[in-house]
Amino acid sequence: MLLQSESSPNTWAPINVRQRRSVLLVGAVGSLVGSCALVVGLVVGLAWYLAVVLFVLLGVLAGVVMQRMAWVVALRFLGGREPQLVAEESLNTALEGLCLSHGLPMPQVRLIHAEAPNALAVARSGEQAAIVITTGMLEQLERIELEGVLAHLLCRIRRGDAAFDTLAGVLMAWPLAKLPSLRHKIMNKVVPAGRSLQADFDSVVLTRYPPGLLRALNAIAAWPDSCHSASVPSQTVIALHIWIHGPDWGIGDTIRHPSLCTRIAALGEL
Asked: Which H/E stretch holds residue 111?
């Protein structure tokens, strides 16, 4: 079944595949840093055992720092501000209601000025995360539709998708910013398959109201040039694969990464 019951233990369980991929990704980058330190140590004349110690220490340190700081780096690139106006308090109210009713940690909230309706979540873990919403989404969506979007993002955070997507954006997409063809191929393989569609179904379980997210996705799809990179306020490649409806980053409509139309059709069958 595509849609699990709320009582299913797998609904909110962290996905082991994502955890393994995160460890491999951080380990690979840490090993690269450590290897560079090893080579430098040998070149400057350190004893081989001291160079190995340097390799281990710097590799582990680099891995830990990257794992802890990737979501902070991504959030700084995205920018945004905290909700301040009375009209913006509905965002915090809706998010707090979802978190309290389901026992989920309350993530940080950031608003980015952009007319196009869109949103994303960056995270280190389920407890350290941030949701970024465009002002266009806040202005154009009704309360029930906004709750569907927020539930989708909370599901990404809780399942571990947001944390892995953030790591992949900072450690892989960003370094390959000048090599779009290679970046597209690698990200297509690295980003977990079907994560958006699964988060859609999980969010319906969370809100118990499928039309909410369905109407929100229809509103996003109706925005002119919604698949163009100009539809999101940040052009950094760190976030292209993280938006709830990302611009075309070279993958098209595939089984691994279904398009918005495919997701709308799937929700429409519920």
From this structure: strand 108-112
